[in-house]
Amino acid sequence: NAGVMQNPRHLVRRRGQEARLRCSPMKGHSHVYWYRQLPEEGLKFMVYLQKENIIDESGMPKERFSAEFPKEGPSILRIQQVVRGDSAAYFCASSRNREETQYFGPGTRLLVL
Amino acid sequence: TQLLEQSPQFLSIQEGENLTVYCNSSSVFSSLQWYRQEPGEGPVLLVTVVTGGEVKKLKRLTFQFGDARKDSSLHITAAQPGDTGLYLCAGERNTGNQFYFGTGTSLTVIP
After folding, report:
1. What is residue A36's predicted lDDT score, i.e. its pLDDT?
2. Interface of A with B (CB under 8 A)
3. Going by C-beta distance under 8 Å and a sequence separation of 6 or more, which residues neighbour residue A2?
């Protein structure tokens, strides 16, 4: 019973490039959450998705960031035209439904040069 | 603004000592969770508390939810090197869909 999977684990991008982070939830989980963890800071909520729907994106920056969770395949967090300030660890969590426990993936460490 | 404040931010103790980590807020939460995160990994859930005044024990770890559901504490008895890690509290409010994470407490237990 595989846990939440994220890939890549490490991603290096130059300023202005695009970063695509993938999250495969646990089997049977249809709710996905993305968080960002900056150095010396706690995790900050970004977006909450169910299959094909964005439920809450109140934590997402208004520009350059987007997320999707298609009917088939993993959830994708996309960052366009990355800047150095985007360097952080991005974590995905999944749950069976809104009320149940969120299980976290190992994270993707993004470094923008 | 940080909804949940944890203290201390850093803690370094000798093996065998006891310690308490605090998670405080001025807001009320419907539930509160404690996680432990090791370097290079995602947070792993330790416990969820939902009732004001609730106390839960997990081996040498004791978790308490404040009566007013605004704060929580984690007490570790006879700490071991394997307890080393970043401890995070996270609260869920009745409104909205997100968890609010605390600032974290980085614990180092020295053998």
Report:
1. 96
2. 4, 33, 35, 41-45, 48, 55-56, 58-59, 91, 93, 98, 101-107
3. A26, A27
Instruction: Evaluate if residue B75 carries a pLDDT over 60.
Output: yes
A106 and B40 within 8 Å at the Cβ level: the answer is yes
> Cβ separation of B96 and A58 shorter than 8 Å?
yes
Residue ranges of E strands in chain B: 5-7, 10-14, 19-24, 31-37, 44-49, 55-58, 61-65, 71-76, 85-92, 99-101, 105-110
Q: Verify whether the Cβ–Cβ distance B98 to A104 is below 8 Å.
A: no
Query: Which of A42, A55, A106 is the closest to B42 by Cβ?
Result: A106
- The answer to whether residues B32 and B95 touch, using CB atoms and an 8 Å cutoff, is no
* Closest chain B residue by Cα to residue A59: B98
Q: How confident is the model at residue B5 (pLDDT cuts 50, 70, 90)?
A: very high
State the Cα–Cα distance between residues A21 and A108, nearest whole angstrom.
7
pLDDT tens digits along B84-104:
999 999 998 876 667 889 989
Pairing relationship of beta strands B105-110 and B10-14 according to DSSP bridges: parallel
